[in-house]
Design goal:
GO terms for molecular function: oxidoreductase activity. Keywords: Oxidoreductase. The chain has helices at residues 18-30, 41-44, 61-72, 89-97, 123-132, 147-150, 160-185, and strands spanning 3-8, 35-40, 75-81, 106-112, 136-144. It is α/β, with parallel strands linked by helices. It has a single domain (3-185), classed as Rossmann fold. Strand 1, helix 1 and strand 2 form a beta-alpha-beta unit. The radius of gyration is 16 Å and the shape is globular.
């Protein structure tokens, strides 16, 4: 069974995007699509890094643990809130921290906001940063507008049927890329 890391990127108090991370974890597990875990940046409390992992002489244990989780995943779902038209510094921090762990990794982008556009404004900057790291950004996008009304704190959608339908299409795209990547990287 393939493994997906759900990267919950907001470290703010009373964050709303984490609701969507909880939903994805529940949906993936309920439908037995893959093994998965939420990799919550709020739990790491990373400082601003001065150097990439590969150049650190004595990397902190939490950095190694985080890098291991990203390396282990065959696919990643990045759940990012929109902050003033961009993505959070916590996400930029970990993108810059790692190198090989991101390269070629099929990654789906989920954008979240309390406004009507669902975080769509952050896409150009995030996609560019991921592209520079060699990430395989899957073609499907998943926008969540009005997140406070769309999901409960526990990650339950207000409109289960419509949300599940959108999620199925998004995850099919991610899974297709994961399978293709697996076939391309398998050596005999």
């Amino acid at each position: 069974m393939k493994h997906i890391a759900i990267l919950s990127t907001s470290v703010r108090k009373d964050r709303k995007s984490h609701r969507v991370s909880l939903y994805f974890k529940h949906f993936i597990e309920k439908n037995q699509l893959a093994s998965c875990e939420i990799v919550d940046l709020q739990q790491y409390n990373f400082p601003i890094f001065e150097e990439r992992l590969r150049h650190m002489t004595d990397p902190p244990e939490e950095v190694l643990a985080f890098a291991g989780k990203m390396a282990k995943a065959q696919g990643i779902i990045v759940v990012s809130p929109e902050y003033n038209g961009g993505y959070p510094a916590s996400l930029k921090n970990v993108l810059d921290l790692l190198s090989g762990e991101w390269k070629g990794k099929p990654t789906g982008i989920v954008t979240v906001s309390n406004g009507p556009f669902g975080g769509a404004l952050l896409l150009p900057s995030l996609v560019f940063s991921l592209w520079k790291k060699g990430v395989w950004v899957v073609p499907a996008r998943y926008h969540v507008p009005a997140v406070t009304e769309a999901f409960t704190e526990e990650g339950m959608p207000a409109n289960q049927e419509v949300t599940d339908k959108r999620t199925t299409a998004f995850l099919e795209s991610l899974q297709w890329c994961m399978e293709a990547n697996s076939r391309m990287t398998t050596t005999e």
